[in-house]
Write a structure and sequence with these properties.
The protein is of the alpha/beta class and 557 residues long. Helices cover 58% and strands 7% of the residues. It has 22 helices and eight strands. Helix 8 (249-256) packs antiparallel against helix 16, helix 12 runs parallel beside helix 21 (516-525) and helix 21 crosses helix 22 (528-556). It is elongated and about 80 Å long. The chain starts with 6 loop residues before the first strand and ends with a helix.
């Protein structure tokens, strides 16, 4: 324990052993991020009266990941640790992790204790472990932190008592020096039952459908709810737009112009925010239930052929909610695939601004059915792009998952704990940039720059068989992906486009360059040099794919 009025303890363990649930249950609080030892990677800190719990990323011994290095840095800089190991694979985790924590003061918490049957002499096992380790060993179900009988299962008279949390706090007060080895073996390893996800053919198919579910719900929301709400919200804002017209020229343009805050505001709250929440809640539920790891394992054999692991693909799908947390989550990817994963997110992850903006454009021109071809082309070109840029070593990378996770019914609190990071990134980072884009576009329109810009870029637009009006959304989408929604500001002009022209315009605006926020995040996570290379490579690929779609489509249709 650390000195002072607040005790500080660091949780150490592998992935998916219940560290986050344990930290939340011990403190009853939500986490904040904290830089450990000057590192650029954040750990989550949970605080309550007299106790500060640092939830470190899961240690992956089989892969060289940034998150494992962060956990090891946090471990090196603390004297007090809680080693978190699962009861289902107790022997292996103790053998792997005790050498890392040996010499530290602490205790051992055994999670998933509810999976141990009453027929096992659990009380004797805990006693043997405590005797050899010389530190307290506390069995818990970290998801509930409810009392668990020492002989396995729940104690009938203590089901509603939060005895586990009290037992852990007491163990911390009596912690001792952890040894580096142990000879005691519990002799069991409990594997969860197989599901359809573990089948060689059906598993990848079902896993892909699971990852596509948030997109399907977002499309349903756009076509059935957002499309109905958008004109209602716009009508409610008409008095404010009329009032803004009485203001001085530049201010009137910024507030009530075609590209102003009031004109584009309905898009933000009707389309973008709900889409982001849909993806964040789905991914939160997948993580809280243990489904993410199962899907990761099922998709790995397929994704390895293009240079990604199953773990990497999950990060790419996360980007459909928001690119920023998706990029930062690549810290848990192997070093040999991380940059490829980031490039895939930058190119193919239609974020919570880009995806609803795309749906809004399709709805505005009366072609909502284009979402199917759009997603098919986006997925296909992203896979081709990744295959072309991935280093050869990426296609031989092993998946760093050493056991099958248990599937659990996700609790609302656990889902929210997983989803809040995406929501925070959306509100604190993406929202201000969206407002800035509106201001810039409105002022450009006010001074007549948009007309001149269209004239300059007209030859470039003709290369893709697109009208001049497509120039502005293409440019602004390179700053922020919701710039695609500017197609809807000139709905009459867009409605005159053919389905192929709409598809090419929206596709090129989405993949030509990553948004400014994504580029800045990647620079912070990797380097400015990598971002420069990524931008040039992505732009070249986007232009090539768009030309094939535009002129190939003309030949076919």
């Amino acid at each position: 324990m650390s000195g002072g009025d607040t005790d500080r303890v660091v949780l150490i363990g592998k992935e998916s052993v219940g560290k986050s649930a344990l930290a939340a249950g011990l403190t009853g609080s939500t986490p904040v991020t904290e830089n450990i030892g000057g590192s650029t990677v954040s750990s989550e800190v949970y605080r309550s009266d007299g106790l500060e719990v640092v939830d470190t990323p899961g240690i992956t011994l089989e892969a060289d990941t940034e998150t494992t290095r962060e956990a090891m840095t946090a471990l090196a800089e603390t004297d007090s640790v809680v080693l978190v190991v699962p009861a289902t694979d107790l022997d292996q985790d103790l053998a792997d992790l005790l050498p890392l924590v040996g010499g530290k003061t602490g205790a051992v918490v055994v999670t998933y204790w509810d999976k141990i049957g009453a027929e096992i002499d659990a009380r004797g096992v805990i006693g043997d472990l405590e005797s050899e380790l010389g530190v307290p060993v506390v069995p818990v179900d970290a998801r509930n932190l409810a009392s668990v009988a020492a002989d396995g299962g729940y104690a009938a008279h203590e089901v509603d008592a939060p005895a586990d949390a009290r037992a852990i706090r007491q163990a911390l007060q009596h912690s001792g020096e952890l040894p580096a080895t142990i000879s005691t073996q519990v002799g069991w390893k409990i594997e969860p039952s197989e599901t359809i996800l573990e089948r060689p053919v059906l598993g990848p198919i079902v896993s892909a459908l699971i990852l596509l579910a948030p997109a399907a719900v977002a499309v349903w929301f756009a076509n059935t709810i957002a499309g109905e709400l958008d004109p209602l919200v716009g009508a409610a804002l008409e008095p404010a737009v009329a009032w803004s017209a009485t203001l001085p020229g530049p201010l009137a343009a910024v507030l009530g112009g075609d590209y102003g805050l009031l004109a584009m505001g309905p898009f933000l709250f009707v389309w973008a925010l709900p889409t982001m929440l849909i993806f964040a809640l789905f991914m939160g539920a997948y993580k809280a239930s243990g489904l993410v790891t199962r899907v990761t394992t099922a998709l790995h054999p397929v994704m390895r052929q293009v240079g990604l692991t199953g773990r990497d693909l999950v990060r790419v799908v996360m980007g459909f909610g928001c690119n920023v947390p998706a990029v930062t989550s690549t810290r848990s990817c192997s070093d040999c695939t991380r940059c490829t994963t980031i490039s895939a997110i930058s190119f193919g992850s239609a974020c919570s601004y880009q995806f609803p903006a795309t749906l809004a454009v399709f709805a505005a021109v009366g072609m909502p059915w284009l979402v199917g071809p759009y997603l098919a082309i986006l997925v296909a070109t992203t896979l081709i792009y990744v295959r072309l840029i991935a280093p050869p070593t990426a296609r031989t990378t092993h998946l760093a998952v050493d056991r099958r996770t248990f599937l659990e019914r996700p609790r609302l609190r656990a889902i929210w704990r997983e989803a809040r990071t995406s929501l925070a990134s959306f509100l604190k980072t993406a929202l201000p940039v969206f407002a800035l884009i509106c201001v810039v576009a409105a002022l450009l329109e006010y001074v007549g720059a948009l007309t001149r810009l269209g004239g300059v870029l007209e030859p470039a637009m003709s290369v893709f068989a697109l009208p001049t009006e497509a120039a502005l959304p293409l440019v602004l989408a390179s700053i922020r992906k919701d710039g695609i929604a500017l197609f809807t500001a000139d709905s009459a002009g867009v409605a005159a486009l053919s389905p192929l022209e709409v598809l090419v315009a929206v596709y090129l605006a989405g993949v030509l360059l990553p948004c400014l926020v994504t580029a800045i995040t990647v620079a912070r996570e990797v380097s400015v040099r990598f971002v420069a290379t990524m931008l040039a490579r992505q732009a070249a690929a986007a232009v090539g794919f768009a030309l094939v779609i535009a002129w190939g489509g003309r030949l076919l249709f």
